[in-house]
Amino acid sequence: MEALPSFRKIVILGGGVSAITAAFRLTSEPNWQDRYQITLYQQGWRLGGKGASGRNAADHQRIEEHGIHVWFGFYYNAFHSLRQCYEELGRPAGSPLATLDEAFFAHSHTAFADDFQNTWTTWPIDTLALPGKPGEGWNPKPFMTALGDLLEWLLRLGEVDDTPAAAAPTGLFARLRAHCREELQELALGEAERHLHEARKALPAGVDHPLLLWLLREARSLLGKVLQERGETSLVAHRLWLLLDFGLTVLIGMLADEVYAKGFEVLNDETFLAWLQRHGASAATLDGAVVKSLHGGIFAYRDGDLEQPNVEAGTVLRAALLALTTSKGSFIWRMQAGMGDVVFAPYYEVLAKRGVNFQFFHQVTGIEAANDGQGPRVTRLQIQRQVPLKQEPYQPLVDVKGLPCWPSEPLYGQIRDDIAKELQEQHINLESNWSGWPGVEQLELVVDHDFHEVVVGISVAGLAALSPSLCALDPAFAKMTREVATVATQAVQLWQDRDVWQLGWTGSPKGGQAPELLGFAAQAMDSWADVSYLVDREDWSSGTPPQDISYFCGVFAADPAPPIGEKNDYPQRQARQVKVAFIDFMKTSLLDYWPAAGTNQDYHWEYLLAPADVSGVARFDYQYWRANVDPSERYVQSVAGSSRYRLATDGSVCRNLYLTGDWIDNGFNMGCVESATLSGLQTARAILGHSEVLPGEDAFQ
């Protein structure tokens, strides 16, 4: 075996969650600088990838995101790593977001968009407050115990209060009896309840699976007799049936397919929707709010087409069970600023202080691999230096009300004046692969001289175009770039002088937690979050602050992309499509939820914050919207049958190449912060030569 050099130069390409996590874990080793030199190359002026956010200095330091970002309480690795970062960062007490616990807050309220009797209604969902802190104490439950927790939740569904003062009936069956009066229905209801309690007692032991299956199927059948017909006229019965049928079908399917023995992977050739249908889910459930909200929440529509819901059954079920059994503090956590401010600025500050060399404005244009007689390895890297700086290193952060943040455009004052002027006059976007910008220098990094090992944190969507020689050498790598699907997404942000209750929102009481809505499947922009609490993080000292800040996002059926690297207005054309479609949405479908926001199929455009001399729909031009079509912006999907093509971090044929991102085979295999963090930790582990099992890798195994 070839001996590794005692001092290794590691090049990291890209600055998303996985790449940053790998750098953070590597540099957490004692005396790491005696063993490694780490250089990270980043296109443009900021870190973050799909999670990058920016502050618009020309407009009240507004936060501008790629979409809606939330964290979940089962993101153990993501919270654990970031908690370590904040502790080392050591911001003074009283400074903005001094600790991780100040940077995130528990969010216990969400809502589904529910189409009931051809009318869109709001279905409020209050998630449970849970013990513990996210990122502390990894204690997953055995598979059968996890299923028991799911059944226990179904049995307790609808409990709102167990104190003697509670006026409303509590628990699922108390609520059902309040809506079911006929003797036959009462008998069926009692029989279903008995079956479920018997199944719950037997589940953790998992002794007699045929009996468990019979009990659960009988209970679902009996509940269907009670609820399905009533669900056509009763909103309560309709929603209870959707939840019960969904939950019981999940239980039945996992037992019937013997997931406890065979693993979740055996289900991955089937879409989740097809799997639910095979195990007897009702048509109402398959087309209902729960299933649609799930697909919309993880952008699970092939090519952005709402007629093609597609996610691997095993992958999504594993994540769901992990969420149910390992979430801490709250199921949902929201950030108290932009994702760039909360996540990537602290990581950057700590890593820069540790000694990681950040090379901003360096765009990777080629990754070359060859067989050198001892086997394939990466031999050369082609990198375009995009701009000349007045002074090295580039200082990327700006202060916004005491918080270090990423700007929404380069800090031109640090770039040589003539180039800065040209970039601004030509409106060059240095993060776009179609800007046509030639850069100022073409760099060539050579193996054994400039690097020994390469960590590729660039999204899978752009890898094939960057590495044709690697694809030729490694058919499995080439196959992965073709089979692991990605999808374009879209996002819009509005700043308004009315709060959402003044706009007509009735889905949650004013004064409670910020509302949100998932699964509005009438169109692709199917998720909304009210983030008005962020107004204090923006700088409205020179103007009237907004009463509402709303974020929207969803999949986007983008036009076919031109070849990477050529000058093309493709991103601008796609963004115009987002704008046109969303303006139409505001005048029509959005008014189902904000009825006071418009009349006669037109929006009250004066509600949007804009200069006083701008009127009508032109006020939308002062909001923020984007089409996420660049390879680094596209969301990584888990379409049926694709996980088998994912490679592990060290799974390529090149002995000095490590892959990292939410697109590799990390055991989680979904597009999210936890999956990306797990990948980064696996990459660092492989480089370090460690063998520890990471939390989440072997859950339920």
Can you describe this structure in just a few lines?
The chain contains 20 helices and 26 strands. By secondary structure, it is of the alpha+beta class.
Q: Remind me, CATH topology of the largest domain?
A: FAD/NAD(P)-binding domain
What is the overall number of helices? 20
Largest sheet: 5 strands, parallel
| Span of the ends, CA to CA | 33 Å
Structural class, from secondary structure content?
alpha+beta
Range of strand content: 15-25%
Query: Which CATH C-level class of the largest domain is it?
Result: Alpha Beta
Mean model confidence by pLDDT: 92
Number of domains: 3
What's the CATH H-level superfamily name of the largest domain? FAD/NAD(P)-binding domain
Oligomer: single chain
Question: How many extended strands?
Answer: 26
**Low-confidence blocks of residues:** 160-169
Shape: globular
CATH architecture of the largest domain: 3-Layer(bba) Sandwich
How is this fold's topology laid out?
Blueprint (H helix, E strand, L loop, with lengths): L7 E6 L3 H10 L9 E7 L11 E3 L5 E3 L6 E2 L3 H14 L10 H4 E4 L1 E8 L2 E8 L16 H13 L16 H8 L3 H20 L6 H19 L7 H22 L2 H4 L9 H7 L4 H4 L2 H9 L15 H14 L5 E4 L3 H16 L2 E4 L1 E10 L4 E10 L12 E3 L2 E3 L11 H9 L15 E6 L6 E4 L6 H4 L1 H6 L1 H9 L2 E2 L1 E8 L19 E3 L8 E4 L17 E8 L14 H18 L10 E2 L2 E2 L20 E5 L6 E2 L20 E3 L13 H16 L13
Parallel strand pairs: 1-2, 1-16, 2-10, 16-26
Antiparallel strand pairs: 3-4, 5-9, 6-9, 7-8, 11-12, 12-15, 13-14, 17-25, 18-21, 18-24, 19-20, 20-21, 22-23
